[in-house]
Structure of Dehydrogenase:
Amino acid sequence: MSEKIKFAVVGCGHIGKRHAEMISRNEECELVGLIDVKDKSVLGIENYEVPFFASLDEFLASGIEVDVINIASPNGFHFEQSYKVIDAGKHVVVEKPMALKKQHAEKLIFQALHKHKQVFAVMQNRYSPPSAWVKEMVESGKLGKIYMVQLNCYWNRDDRYYKPESWHGKKELDGGTLFTQFSHFIDIMYWLFGDITNIQAKFADFNHETLTDFEDSGFVSFDFVDGGMGSLNYSTSVWNQNLESSMTIIAEHGAVKIGGQYMDKVEVCNIKDYVMPELAPTNPGNDYGAYKGSAANHHYIIENVVDVLKGRNTITTNALEGLKVVDIIERIYAIK
């Protein structure tokens, strides 16, 4: 693949526009189509001079040449649309979560293997310098045995986010707080420490009864299959603005805490015979006006797609890891 890689994007909301922007900025890519059910005039996509379609079927029927289709639609559509893309013989980049059911994620992977196509799962927090640094600390054994891991995710999501006309908060399309808000953090935890077992959990709906079909807060505890124990404490009922996302690791040779709104700062590094290096700065968080999202790392995802398809690199988040995140969330929610 020496020529430009052709992309189309399904879903032109905040995230879809980020995909379109990153594709447009990459000189090895070409944006060939945008797809959304909403009218073009309300989406704010007039700077993209590419054909616009009201459905994925319409785009696929158009005969426009495309290599990769990015899915940035509501969660509940991810599986069905990704499956269609693979079925049509194209690679797919799918926003988190890859699906809302493990069996759907499995089906998608099976079809991708069958068609020899790549499924790129978007988990952009892996690209932040603190995440990459912790990964190296765990894998190199500098931390020794892992004893305890605590993940705290305390965010604000109120009626500025859960609007009546939005898909956010609807069980079928959203899936739940862990799928939409915190799957990135579950991904980081799985990436660092592997699978979990012996899950116990309690959930509450404090101030979202009229806004969502599901819980807004939870305490979850578990053991890691590879040893050590962990907990995930999360809430979207924080008043007015995000409070924190943090991960504390207590291990044989030291303690580490990553914090900041988006796990973008190493707050504590206290490790035997080790001096903390200067890390590259983390990209700022995505700003959606009234509420904030996680670090803006989508350009790395597009770069990785290009590198993989041109045979220069391996995939950063493979589909199996995307499936494991869905599986872990499904098992946590099964306790309800």
Observations:
- The longest strand covers residues 146-154.
- The two ends are 48 Å apart (CA to CA).
- Residues 319-333 form the longest helix (15 residues).
